[in-house]
Amino acid sequence: MSIQVSNLVHPFISLSKIFPIEIISEKNKAIVVTGSNGSGKTTFLKLLLNELLPKRGKITVDGDIAFLGTKNGLKPQILLRQQLPYFLAKNVTFLWPHFLNMQYQELSAGQQRLVALWLILQTVKPIILLDEPFAHLDSSSRNMAYTWLNAKINSQKTIVFSHHNLEELTEINGLQVLDLNQH
User: Fold this and answer.
1) Burial code of 80-105, b = ≥16 C-beta within 10 A, e = fewer?
2) Which of 7, 20, 55, 69 is the most buried (most CB within 10 A)?
3) What's the pLDDT score for residue 19?
4) Fold adopted by 2-182
């Protein structure tokens, strides 16, 4: 249940720009990958997922990965009730029963993101990667999401997520910062 990245180099956006990174992440830790737009946050997550290959370096992932990208992964025209069995164990109660008979596309962007984030955090997989997980969330929903994230960090999960504003993340425990602007 760990991720190890050493001496990583990958060209992105501008082929002359590279980022060498050396980190070790273990359970009970969360790593936030931060940086300005275009700094490589999503690229870094795709490298961890093995969707992109590094030019140099080594990435070792010990454990299965659950991933939530910028698209929420639910089918827009299908009722939530029909989609939940793919995400939830039978003994998990869905937090929003009033959404069950709605198509996913009927929810607001914030509601869609909140549902998708909650569902991915229900995974039994030990490693969770999240690309901008708090996008479209209002402050109340973000606080709820921070509580869920803290609970998962405390339950032996390794979590890596991208976010652009560190000042918003003071409520998250065990946070290690990987700032791509510094590389």
Assistant:
1) beebbeebeeeeeebeeeebeeebbe
2) 69
3) 57
4) Rossmann fold (3.40.50)
